[in-house]
Amino acid sequence: MNNFETVIGLEVHAQLNTATKMFCPCPQADYKAGANSAICPVCTGQPGTLPAANVKAVELGVKTGLALNCRVNEISIFARKNYFYPDLPKSYQVSQFDRPLCEAGSVEIDLKPSGSKTIRVARAHLEEDAGKSLHALGSRALDYTLVDFNRCGVPLIEIVSEPDISSADEAHAYLTELKRILQWAGVSQCDMEKGELRCDVNISLKAAAVKELGQKVEIKNLNSFKAVKDAINSEIARQTAMIERGETVAQDTRLWNEKEQKTVPMRSKEMAHDYRYFPEPDLVPLRIAAARLETAKNELGELPRARKTRFMKDFGLNNYDAGVLTSDRCLSAYFEACMKEAPPSAAEGEAKAVANLITGEFFARANELKVNPEDYLSKTISPVSLVKLAALTSAGKLSASAAKTVFAGSWGTGKTPEALMGELGLAQVSDSVQIEAWAREAIAANPDAAKDFKNGNEKALGPIVGMVMKKSGGKANPRLANEAIKKILAA
Amino acid sequence: MLTAVETVKLIKEKKLTALTALENCFKAIKERDGEIGAFLEVFENSARAQAAAVDAKAETGKPLGRLAGVPVAIKDNMAYAGHRMTCGSKILEGYVSPYTATAVQRLIDEDAVIIGRANMDEFAMGSSTENSAYKKTKNPADTACVPGGSSGGSAAAVAAGFCPIALGSDTGGSIRQPAAFCGVYGLKPTYGLVSRYGLTAFASSLDQIGPLTSTVEDAELALSVLAAHDPKDSTSVKKPALERPFNMKGLRVGLPKEYFSDMKGVSGEVAAALDTIKNKLRSAGAVTAEVSLPNSVYALAAYYIISSSEASSNLGRFDGIRYGSSVKGASLADVYRKTRARGFGPEVKRRIMLGVYSLSSGYYDAYYLKAQKIRTLLKRDFDAAFTKADVILTPVSPTTAFKLGEKIDDPVTMYLSDIFTIPCNLAGLAGISFPAGKSAAGMPVGAQLLAKPFNEGLLFNIIREVERAA
Fold first, then answer.
1. So what's the pLDDT on residue A143?
2. Interface touch B233/A52, C-beta < 8 Å
3. Best CATH choice for the domain B4-226 from the list 3.90.1300.10, 3.30.2350.10, 1.10.240.10, 3.10.20.90
């Protein structure tokens, strides 16, 4: 295996986030909608119907290109890809061929354990989805096929990488980054379970010393990141074994069999279609005016990777925290809103405390309550309160458990931490006279533990501190309680 | 038969009802369409309902549309909701359209009455209407002759006096050639002027809907209703037809030397009729000028590559899966094979095979791409010609209507009958065929005028002047 280099390119189809289909006014139906409930004469290919390009889909295509550092072509051309299948009602798919909307881009991925790599993007083009063929109903195989045209005509962007990916892990990192960018740009929701993001893998092995690539094997229709990773690893093993046995890897199209964890042949290239691509005469060339490009650029704003770098630089966040905070556009906006509330003199630790609160408590609760990220600013806890809470905790004025209670109390209520602390009597006690009094009582109640500690058993301190916390109703500052007990026992 | 202009006038003056106008049409159809075979179906019920609605409107004093009560036939390749549409093909036998074509809807919105669907060559492929899978249409001037094609049913319907206006579609001459054969007016509007939405596509980049009429005024009236931008057709233009001040004095009429220096293949009667038109133009004050279309010799070849390539893709949807006729088979491929083998006629199959071949990998550059280059060169030829001429005069067809069965087994000779009409589609120009006299045998002869895009108004004006000079 060491003798071979793995060369991988990915073709990703993302469903565009539009209300209607690519070429007709039908709505993009929910995947649970009844079969053939979102169809019309155009998307079922009735004679005489014509396509009219969805302006919003074009705009999202442009944003994809910009977000992937592509050149967005001023003129691009729709083309027909001809083949016969029952779920393709016109007998051709309207796509783009030799003049796509976007070309020559790149995606920066993080490598493990460290470093980064640039994966070049060859092209991104607009196309329409086909319908869905059902060969079985549940577990019952049918001796006929049912076709649902709801998905037929749904707009897609196909993003084709250059063969710059060298491992399953890199493929995973690329997909993760791509998904983050597409979601960030509002291009696609990228829900793989709903088929909104689909991936084909092209993979070949070559001996390290050899210049030309081996025969390309395509693995089609992978619908989870895990499947992509597993399929690549399995295919590397299969091709390696073949080459080591002296066999030749033939050009092939394969499918991933999840159950058996192996790729299986789909059709040999000899039977491959001649798609007879030619420019779609029913659509005029797509022209992207400079003003339209500018608008898209402005709407797109700062991209996640740039924002992450800025967070690290401006707020002193580490790579991990900055990464989590820029995994979602709304989350990063929420963090920024918080940092605006932090006093300008705030120490670096302040940002860290805010970040911790957001990536920990905030994120967990938002996910649990399924809060839409767009509602982070309105339906969670106000940035002012969150910053205050972080400050109170790091200043020792609130214990960790009390902080949790306050956090829960201010969630969705608009109550300030101070008000809640008063209401619930949760202010942490740091008065040394009071703490010393509790400490003396606690030592008196635990003579054995006190003796053990004096004999050098550090652990014996635990029950005494616990007693202080109990006596104080959880309000004693645990650090001060610790110090007070040690001081008394040392005397 | 009343013209459309006369019909509208009488109905608006309440001297005629739409129902009477319609019944007159039905009477003429019953009397003679058994012999002519222009219609595949007469929409008796829906037409009567429409006419009654127009009359009700007139009675209550509501404003009437520009085509109030005018009976109109549509070619069988245009969608009309709730009505059958077969494109002259067995593969669409029984198909009922779920929606209405924009062009048809625009007629209806102006209170026209849609009386039936006219026969045509299967999927508009042909020049004699003999390729219809349903019936042969006869030329009203001589029933032993073809009416031309592919809009032969539409031309015959107007020529026989069944209705004043019929819609046709023109991909390479399918409105103009039958108009010439039957002795009526046939307009191929500039590409993009009339919406194609609802017109079953033959060759998308060439197809255009247009009217066949018995007067130039009716053609003008019909176009004024049909021409409009349609957001459902991305190739339809926002620009309206141009209205320019018109002066016959000094009008430059271009005569392509490739056609006129050597009228080889053009019958003496057609050549003589063209001479008469030339003289009339001159006596009306126009000047003639020789122009050159050097690439027109390649037009026919380029046309058959491009139109067949597009057709091979456009006709893929007739697969027996969702609509139309379907033949059961042992496998999916078998269903496709049997359905299409049985559903399509020989000419359609010939064009699909030609188109698939031209678009195939390895042949694309040599055929499809080269044909597109010729198309560009031909457009340039016309651009140059139109710097020397305001309009171009040509024959419509090399001969008058030929006999039924005469050319049906000889596709290439049949293709050659479109040699003068094809360049207009390839270059996206406006073209009209108008009556230019009769042969010794009494068969109509047509002449063609071509104009720059959106200059339909100029064509109408010139024809009016020529007819005044007569």
1. 83
2. yes
3. 3.90.1300.10
Q: Which of B391, B389, B409 is nearest to B459 (CA)?
A: B391
Asked if A48 has any chain B CB less than 8 Å from its own CB, the reply is: yes
Query: Higher-confidence residue: A267 or B268?
Result: B268
A47, B92: Cβ pair inside 8 Å?
yes
Amino acid at B204: S
CB atoms within 10 A of CB A462: 12
Nearest CB to B316 within list A41, A92, A283: A92
Domain assignments of chain B as residue spans, ordered by start:
4-226
Higher pLDDT, B424 or A140: B424
Q: How far apart are CA B381 and CA B293, in angstroms?
A: 5
**A54 Rama class: left (phi>0) / alpha (psi -120 to 50) / beta:** beta
Q: Give the rounded distance of the alpha carbon of A38 from its chain centre.
A: 29
Quote the tokens at residue A253: 């199209």
The tokens for A404 are 């949790």
pLDDT higher than 50, residue A269: no
Structure tokens at B327: 């033949």
* Whether B150 is catalytic: yes
How long, in residues, is chain B? 470
Q: Is the distance from CB of B444 to CB of B141 less than 8 angstroms? A: yes
Average pLDDT on A50-65 reads 96
Q: Is A273 on the interface with B (CB under 8 A)?
A: no
DSSP class of B343: H
**Residue A133 contacts B where some CB pair is shorter than 8 Å:** no
pLDDT of residue A209: 64
| CB spacing of B198 vs A82 below 8 angstroms | no
Question: How far is Cα B296 from Cα B291, in angstroms, rounded to an integer?
Answer: 12
3-state helix, strand, coil in chain B (%, to 5): 45, 15, 40
> What average pLDDT does this structure show over B315-326?
95
Q: What ipTM was reported for this prediction?
A: 0.94
Omega cis (within 30) before B267: no
pTM summary value: 0.88
pLDDT at B470: 63
Check: CB of residue B393 under 8 Å from CB of residue B448: yes
Q: What is the pLDDT of residues B86-122, one digit of tens each?
A: 999 999 999 999 999 999 999 999 999 999 999 999 9
- Within 8 A by CB and 6+ apart from B5, the residues are B215, B217, B218, B221
Residue in the block written with tokens 């106000």: A382
Q: Confidence class of residue B263 from pLDDT cuts 50, 70 and 90?
A: low
pLDDT of residue A1: 44
The whole-angstrom distance between B1's CA and the closest CA on chain A is 32
Q: What's the pLDDT score for residue A431?
A: 73
pLDDT at A270: 44
Q: What is the three-state SS of B77-134?
A: CECCCCCECCCCCHHHCCCECCCCCHHHHHHHHCCCEEEEEECCCHHHCCCCCCCCCC
Q: Is residue A270 within 8 angstroms of chain B, CB to CB?
A: no
Specify whether the backbone of A425 is left (phi greater than 0), alpha (psi in -120 to 50) or beta: left
Tokens 């040394």 appear where? A432
Number of alpha carbons in the 13 Å side-chain half-sphere of residue A410: 25
Instruction: Give the integer Cα–Cα distance in Å for B147 and B151.
Output: 9
Q: What backbone torsions phi and psi does residue A235 show, to the nearest 5 degrees? A: -70, -35
Across residues B15-27, what is the average pLDDT? 97
First to last CA, chain A: 68
Q: Which of B97, B154, B174, B195 is flagged as catalytic?
A: B174
Contact yes or no for B163/B134 (Cβ under 8 A)? no
- Hey, what domains does chain A have and what are their CATH numbers? 4-291 (no CATH), 302-424 (no CATH), 432-490 (1.10.10.410)
Task: Give per-residue pLDDT as tens, B144-168.
Answer: 999 999 999 999 999 999 999 999 9
Measured between CB atoms, does A25 come within 8 Å of chain B? Answer: no
Q: What is the mean pLDDT of chain A?
A: 86
Cα–Cα distance for residue pair A196/A214, rounded to 1 Å:
31
